[in-house]
DNA sequence: CTGAAAGCGCTTACAG
DNA sequence: CTGAAAGCGCTTACAG
């Protein structure tokens, strides 16, 4: 590897002290303009990059933020990552990953150890970890900022949120507009706050249209393909079976679709199905799934950016909380109610 | 945050010098057993974790390895990550991610800058980056080890490889055993060496069975759903259309399946389709796709483990190269040839 | 088998 | 607006 220049080299080249170079690196105000220009020139000339370990050792900062997740959906994760990475690449910070099992007994120990060992300066929490109060409290004792990818919560300082309830409401309105009134819902995993919000939006739409939700049309899924398949079997065997099923994510919708193929139920002619998340399968399956797309990558970018701003103490220009609008994606799986 | 103990605290508690503690931390051999026990006890008692920045600053190591990828497939990426993370979590190392565009003009500059800035001690390269010779050469000038997730290559010291050719061969044998002889292939993205290997395995099987590949049955895809759909249109419109299509990945197989639905071609009765990768869609689509599963997570774990061993100079006990067997997954999309 | 000293490349705390 | 000194928590290089 080519020789790496240090702060000393720059100081010598610019004819100033290392402290002045340090001031320039850290954008401290008390530097004469001419001096700054001089130093900047030397930095460029010598291709100087501050050594992070040295900076970290002295200043107690690691310039590392953690992304904690319980692999909810690989597409979701990938988008969260891309967004976080994008925010990091504009700064000095790096992203470190940790997969966690939300329900494992040693979750908290493991997370705390990880944060301490890697000396993380802040963490991003994704669902369902962002709904796990015990975990949150444990991390808070470490006195590092937490950025939540989660519904708005006024007891949190930093969050990036989607509009799950509103989107579910809008999608359900669409279903009803197609003439459906006997509508079932397959709810999402109980540990995810998004499940509840999607359910609420769904119910709100029904209520406003004067449609009563039949209790046998309310099904508890867990976001898995298998749960969608199994619950389809349960609800479609009923005498007065629904003409539309609102699935709380795309995998469960895919499960319903598979069941229908096997039983010869034609989609959307005999049954309409909707999903949520706009994961890849929603596009690649046939019939393609009507669903909701959330700007996950943008949300994650905001989450990382806010976290870094907070760590740097420079959070004046950055809104630490933001809600991101969702988009309805209408595809083949939603059609008119059979007459 | 609770007080963090340092090497000094441990030394004082154990009644030895900090150098001896350092020896214990780093598993250096020249320590008396009794001393070691004593120190280990103090370490545990004080919950001492060595400060990485200090270690890094002095030893010039960052304990950071990079995972470079050109988001080929989100599922693939997620598995690679999980495996790498697993290997890291057993060590002092952390994983840092970087998404790269294999075809972007400034790829090399970007990667080199990233490695230097983050002070990475080694990198893992995934396809198609692991097939990009210019990039590889540029990284080599940095004198850090590279771990390849790629086909065996004797000019590389560290690699983790799948058996793309063998698996494609076995899958094609299976197709032929079902009575097919008019078989088309949709090839993968040209920049991926796996595409060529899968094609080779396919051809080898055909040859051994005395089947000649009709040139119009050889189609150039790019791993995308859209390319599968488009090429299905091209090849299935032919007069003497194939009874089976070997798709070089699952997304392209999904594209073929969608086309068939729309044209009323029944799978597998009128057409058999196979995929590659066993991505989630292979399971969740209907008909589910016969495909090849590669132990991507295990491969990535090996890749990271080998890289870390190499960095630590302790690569004696670790095989730096390994080939991982694939598994045939037979599902609904492959059936007997129509008579 | 063990330790005292020096120093990695920065930032902190202080002085002027 | 600028700098000299000290020190972060380790490992290196050396000595015994």
Quick structural summary:
The structure is a homodimer of 339-residue chains. Chain A is α/β, with parallel strands linked by helices and 339 residues long.
Write up what this structure looks like.
Chain A is of the alpha/beta class and 339 residues long. Chain A folds into three domains: 7-59, 434 Repressor (Amino-terminal Domain) (Orthogonal Bundle); 64-162 and 295-324, 3-Layer(aba) Sandwich (Rossmann fold), CATH 3.40.50; 164-294, Rossmann fold (3-Layer(aba) Sandwich). In chain A, 45% of the residues lie in helices and 14% in strands. Chain A has 13 helices and twelve strands. A six-stranded parallel β-sheet of chain A has the order 2-1-3-4-5-11, sandwiched between helices. Chain A has a four-stranded parallel β-sheet with strand order 7-6-8-9, sandwiched between helices. The model of chain A has no long low-confidence stretch (mean pLDDT 92). At the A-B interface, helix 4, helix 5, strand 2, helix 6 and helix 11 of A face helix 4, helix 5, strand 2, helix 6 and helix 11 of B. The structure holds a DNA duplex (16 and 16 nucleotides).
């Amino acid at each position: 590897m080519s020789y790496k220049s240090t702060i000393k080299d720059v100081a010598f080249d610019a004819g100033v002290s290392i402290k002045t170079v340090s001031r320039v690196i850290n954008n401290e105000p008390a530097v004469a303009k001419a001096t700054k220009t001089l130093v900047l020139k030397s930095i460029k000339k010598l291709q100087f990059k501050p050594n992070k370990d040295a900076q970290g050792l002295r200043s107690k900062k690691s310039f590392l933020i953690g992304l904690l997740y319980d692999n909810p959906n690989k597409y979701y994760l990938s988008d969260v990552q891309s967004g976080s990475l994008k925010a990091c690449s504009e700064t000095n910070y790096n992203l470190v990953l940790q997969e966690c099992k939300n329900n494992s007994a040693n979750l908290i120990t493991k997370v705390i150890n990880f944060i301490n060992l890697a000396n993380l300066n802040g963490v991003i929490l994704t669902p369902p970890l962002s709904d796990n109060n015990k975990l949150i409290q444990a991390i808070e004792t470490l006195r590092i900022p937490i950025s939540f990818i989660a519904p708005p919560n006024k007891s949190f300082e930093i969050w990036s949120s989607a509009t799950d309830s509103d989107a579910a409401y809008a999608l359900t309105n669409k279903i009803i507009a197609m003439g459906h009134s006997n509508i079932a819902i397959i709810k999402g995993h109980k540990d995810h706050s998004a499940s509840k919000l999607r359910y609420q939006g769904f119910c709100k739409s029904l209520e406003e249209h004067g449609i009563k939700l039949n209790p046998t049309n309310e099904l508890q899924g867990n976001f898995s393909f298998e749960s969608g398949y199994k619950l389809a079997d349960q609800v479609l065997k009923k005498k007065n079976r629904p003409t539309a099923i609102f699935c709380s994510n795309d995998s469960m919708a895919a499960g319903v679709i598979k069941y229908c193929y096997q039983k010869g139920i034609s989609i959307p002619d005999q049954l309409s199905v909707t999903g949520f998340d706009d994961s890849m399968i929603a596009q690649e399956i046939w019939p393609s799934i009507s669903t909701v797309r959330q700007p996950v990558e943008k949300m994650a970018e905001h989450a990382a950016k806010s976290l870094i701003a907070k760590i740097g103490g420079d959070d004046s220009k950055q809104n630490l909380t933001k809600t991101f609008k969702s988009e309805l994606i209408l595809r083949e799986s939603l059609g008119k109610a059979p007459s």
